[in-house]
Amino acid sequence: MDFLKDLWKFLKERKKWWLAPLIITLLLLGLLIVLGSTSALAPFIYTLF
After folding, report:
1. What is the DSSP letter of 32?
2. With contact defined as beta carbons under 8 Å apart, do 43 and 35 qualify?
Protein backbone atom coordinates (compact mmCIF):
# COMPACT_ATOMS: atom_id res chain seq x y z
CA MET A 1 0.00 0.00 0.00
CA ASP A 2 2.98 2.32 0.40
CA PHE A 3 3.48 2.19 -3.34
CA LEU A 4 -0.05 3.46 -3.97
CA LYS A 5 0.38 6.24 -1.42
CA ASP A 6 3.65 7.30 -3.04
CA LEU A 7 2.05 7.17 -6.47
CA TRP A 8 -0.83 9.34 -5.28
CA LYS A 9 1.60 11.88 -3.79
CA PHE A 10 3.55 11.94 -7.06
CA LEU A 11 0.42 12.58 -9.11
CA LYS A 12 -0.69 15.30 -6.71
CA GLU A 13 2.63 17.14 -6.47
CA ARG A 14 3.60 16.95 -10.14
CA LYS A 15 0.05 17.55 -11.42
CA LYS A 16 0.19 14.49 -13.67
CA TRP A 17 -3.56 13.88 -13.55
CA TRP A 18 -3.57 12.46 -17.07
CA LEU A 19 -1.79 9.37 -15.66
CA ALA A 20 -4.64 8.53 -13.28
CA PRO A 21 -7.00 6.95 -15.88
CA LEU A 22 -4.12 4.95 -17.32
CA ILE A 23 -3.15 3.58 -13.92
CA ILE A 24 -6.75 2.76 -13.00
CA THR A 25 -7.26 0.95 -16.30
CA LEU A 26 -4.11 -1.11 -15.80
CA LEU A 27 -5.13 -2.02 -12.25
CA LEU A 28 -8.60 -3.10 -13.40
CA LEU A 29 -7.13 -5.15 -16.21
CA GLY A 30 -4.77 -6.87 -13.79
CA LEU A 31 -7.65 -7.60 -11.43
CA LEU A 32 -9.67 -9.04 -14.30
CA ILE A 33 -6.79 -11.32 -15.28
CA VAL A 34 -6.37 -12.56 -11.71
CA LEU A 35 -10.09 -13.20 -11.26
CA GLY A 36 -10.35 -14.82 -14.67
CA SER A 37 -7.66 -17.35 -13.98
CA THR A 38 -8.21 -18.35 -10.36
CA SER A 39 -11.84 -18.06 -9.37
CA ALA A 40 -15.24 -19.54 -9.99
CA LEU A 41 -16.11 -16.34 -11.85
CA ALA A 42 -13.86 -17.29 -14.75
CA PRO A 43 -16.62 -18.67 -17.03
CA PHE A 44 -18.62 -15.46 -16.59
CA ILE A 45 -15.64 -13.21 -17.28
CA TYR A 46 -14.78 -15.10 -20.46
CA THR A 47 -18.27 -14.47 -21.82
CA LEU A 48 -17.59 -10.71 -21.69
CA PHE A 49 -15.03 -11.09 -24.43
Report:
1. H
2. no
Cβ proximity of 42 and 35 under 8 Å: yes
Count Cβ atoms below 10 Å from residue 28 Cβ, excluding itself: 10
Q: Are 17 and 27 in contact (CB under 8 A)?
A: no
Q: Give CA–CA dist 12/46, Å, rounded.
A: 36
Dist. CA 12–CA 5, nearest whole Å: 11
**Residue range 18-22: mean pLDDT, rounded:** 86
- DSSP assigned state of 33: H
Q: 19-23, 31-35, 43-47 — which one is most confidently predicted on average?
A: 19-23
pLDDT level of residue 25 (50, 70, 90 thresholds): very high
